[in-house]
Q: What sequence folds into this?
């Protein structure tokens, strides 16, 4: 028994990188998979409040009602027991593949989010970003760019005119808003001088703006923030940009022929992507996992007398994850609030907003910010 | 054999096999989707070679932007395979195939030699040492984006700017051709 435990300990010690990677990826997956069920419940409740109803508040867990938090479980069971139906004229392979794509891409994309600064385990420092490529947040951009194929394929393979129109709309919309999205983030890259999200968060927490404001991106470049949040709505196909679904004119767009669990896979992907992009916004504009006015290093120093050196970093990481989730939750709430208060754009309005207003504003913002940053660097 | 070398070989073989699958698809949408899979595999291979920026750019530019337009056009036309041209292979096409096989073998072995004989770690670029052609790395090899930017805006600035002119000329040319067609169409109507 003793020997085997020692062997396990030695294996962990030599392969700490591998074990830590698997652990971080598992943690991010668990978070991403919880987003969809909880958000469905939040969305239904919030819609009900906006429309002066009560919403699902009956289904509880273990005899407690919990404001209806058991509803997602009941929904999932219902969806699992529904008939799995494939239309006869559909392209079977792509019809089956289409819902899997957004779900997989959503779960892969979330791996690029820094969940915390670092923890120290048995002398090894572990960076809490599951996938930290040298290209930084470009990884998240790449994943969000692939997200459109699920919708486009669903539209094409269903062999339904409404669905096809939805798929076409989605791909045109994605191309139009991706450019503005990239241009909105570019000023932040040269303000912080890095593409790395951990570096950006560090740059936002190491000093105060004008002596009292946290040095957050939202204060450094507010126009970028507004542009990015708007393109984020477009990129995730959420109202007022959900032209791909458009119940009024396209029945349900690319979702027309889908039912049961395949239908809900689209939502798993959509919510995971919403979470990822909200977390990206949080990291770039709102200081990520850092508590305002209290950088990670100071937090660890504060906690060290209570928990001793190594556990202090674990507690700090847990607090950081909590802070990140609170900030992201605020964005998710914004998504829900926008869905039930704003009407959908008309398609020509959508295109005009993207190309005629947002793109020039983003370009102008880029030039102005470049001049300001260049001037500040020179002086 | 370590894990990254193994995945590199698996990804490479899969990409080559999928290329064969791609050109034999009857539906254009299927071919486009397989092409996207190949591009993703290529990005993975770039990533394994520590070229993270190239990997991200591969997906953002090719799979995420260009192929979306391809898929858009293919889906907009939505032609069934019966309406697409099928026929014998002409002599010109056979010559083209022979030339492309020749080029593919030459390139493939050259690139393959570079990887297989020297391994991932000992390649010049990964070492951060001077690379061929007298250009040196400005930053450590792990600083992907900075190195790409340095060679783009320092060493090859003129070539890079000339390419942007070329692309602009192509765009204007496309617009002019489209305008001419529509003007003729309007006259005929």
A:
């Amino acid at each position: 028994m003793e020997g085997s435990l020692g062997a396990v300990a030695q294996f962990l010690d030599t392969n700490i990188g591998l074990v830590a990677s698997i652990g971080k990826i598992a943690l991010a997956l668990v978070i991403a998979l919880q987003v969809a069920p909880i958000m469905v419940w939040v969305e239904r409740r919030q819609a009900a409040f906006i429309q002066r109803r009560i919403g699902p508040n009956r289904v509880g867990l273990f005899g407690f009602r919990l404001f209806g938090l058991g509803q997602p479980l009941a929904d999932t069971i219902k969806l699992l027991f529904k008939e799995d139906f494939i239309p006869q004229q559909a392209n079977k392979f792509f019809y089956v593949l289409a819902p899997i794509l957004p779900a997989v891409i959503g779960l892969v994309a979330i791996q690029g989010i820094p969940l915390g600064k670092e923890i120290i385990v048995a002398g090894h420092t572990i960076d809490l970003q599951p996938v930290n490529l040298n290209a930084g947040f470009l990884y998240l951009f790449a994943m969000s760019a692939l997200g459109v194929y699920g919708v486009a394929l669903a539209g094409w393979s269903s062999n339904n005119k409404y669905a096809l129109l939805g798929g076409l709309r989605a791909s045109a919309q994605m191309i139009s808003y991706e450019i503005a999205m990239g241009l909105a983030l570019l000023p932040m890259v040269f303000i912080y001088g890095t593409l790395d999200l951990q570096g950006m968060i560090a740059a936002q927490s190491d000093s105060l703006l004008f002596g009292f404001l946290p040095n957050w991106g939202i204060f450094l470049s507010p126009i970028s923030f507004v542009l990015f949040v708007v393109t984020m709505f477009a990129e995730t196909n959420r109202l007022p940009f959900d032209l791909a679904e458009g119940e009024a004119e396209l029945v349900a767009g690319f979702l027309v022929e889908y039912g049961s669990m395949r239908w809900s896979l689209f939502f798993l992907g959509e919510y995971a992507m919403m979470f990822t992009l909200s977390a990206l916004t949080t990291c770039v504009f709102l200081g990520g996992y850092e508590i305002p006015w209290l950088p990670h290093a100071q937090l660890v120093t504060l906690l060290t007398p209570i928990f001793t050196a190594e556990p202090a970093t674990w507690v700090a990481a847990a607090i950081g994850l909590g802070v990140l989730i609170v900030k992201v939750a605020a964005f998710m709430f914004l998504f829900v609030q926008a869905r039930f208060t704003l009407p959908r754009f008309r398609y020509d309005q959508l295109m005009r907003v993207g190309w005629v207003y947002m793109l020039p504003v983003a370009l102008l913002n880029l030039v102005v910010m470049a001049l300001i940053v260049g001037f500040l660097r020179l002086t | 054999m370590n894990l990254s070398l193994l995945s590199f070989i698996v990804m490479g073989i899969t990409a080559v096999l999928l290329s064969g699958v791609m050109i034999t698809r009857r539906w254009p949408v299927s071919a486009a989707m397989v092409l996207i899979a190949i591009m993703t595999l290529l990005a993975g291979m770039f990533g394994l070679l520590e070229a993270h920026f190239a990997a991200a750019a591969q997906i953002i530019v090719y799979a995420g932007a260009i192929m979306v337009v391809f898929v858009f056009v293919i889906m907009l036309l939505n032609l069934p395979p019966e309406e697409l041209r099928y026929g014998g292979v002409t002599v010109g096409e056979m010559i083209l195939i022979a030339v492309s096989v020749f080029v593919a073998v030459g390139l493939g072995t050259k690139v393959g030699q570079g990887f297989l004989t020297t391994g991932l770690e000992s390649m010049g670029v990964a070492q951060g040492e001077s690379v061929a052609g007298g250009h040196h790395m400005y930053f450590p090899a792990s600083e992907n984006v900075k190195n790409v930017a340095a060679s783009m805006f320092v060493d090859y600035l003129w070539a890079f700017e000339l390419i942007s002119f070329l692309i602009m000329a192509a765009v204007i040319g496309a617009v002019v051709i489209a305008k001419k067609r529509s003007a003729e169409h309007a006259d005929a109507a």
Notes: Chain B touches chain A at residues 27, 29-30, 33, 36, 40, 43, 47, 50, 52-53, 55-57, 59-60, 63-65, 68-69, 71-72, 75-76, 78, 142-145 (CB under 8 Å). Confidence is low (pLDDT under 50) at residues 119-135 of chain B.
